[in-house]
Design a protein that fits this description.
alpha+beta; about 25% strand; 1 helix; about 120 residues; two-stranded antiparallel sheet; four-stranded mixed beta sheet
Length: about 120
């Protein structure tokens, strides 16, 4: 029976009744271990990286009023606004721009309304 010592960092084989073993590069055995550790570390890093988007997605809150029908405002319409939950920021827009506002009324019901408004930026 022949034993292969290459994987242990030695060249040659050992056959009964015992041939001389020639040592090769003493770091060769460590390279095998280092390669294995690097492959495991790479696999763990890939796994953790693939889970990161799911973790961050759990922190994202949907915009208030998501899924509510949008009501179009008309001049003279009676609107019962108790508290504004969301409003489109038009401070960097110029001219007349559409705005979405999500609000609760005095009964505690949530509504979403769209209307036009002058933007906050002046291009003159």
């Amino acid at each position: 029976e022949t034993i292969n010592f290459r994987r242990f960092g030695f060249a040659g084989h050992m056959s009964p009744p015992g041939n001389a073993i020639e040592p090769i590069d003493p770091v060769a055995g460590f390279r095998i271990v280092e390669d294995s550790i690097m492959k495991i570390a790479t696999a763990i890093t890939a796994l953790l990286s693939s889970l990161a988007p799911a973790v961050f997605a759990a922190d994202i809150q949907p915009k208030p009023g998501a899924g509510l029908p949008t009501e179009q405002y008309h001049y003279g319409m009676k609107v019962d606004v108790q508290k504004v939950l969301y409003r489109t920021d038009v401070s960097d827009k110029s001219g007349v721009v559409p705005v979405i506002m999500v609000y609760t009324d005095s009964q505690g019901e949530t509504h979403k309304m769209s209307f036009l408004e002058w933007g906050g930026r002046y291009d003159g």
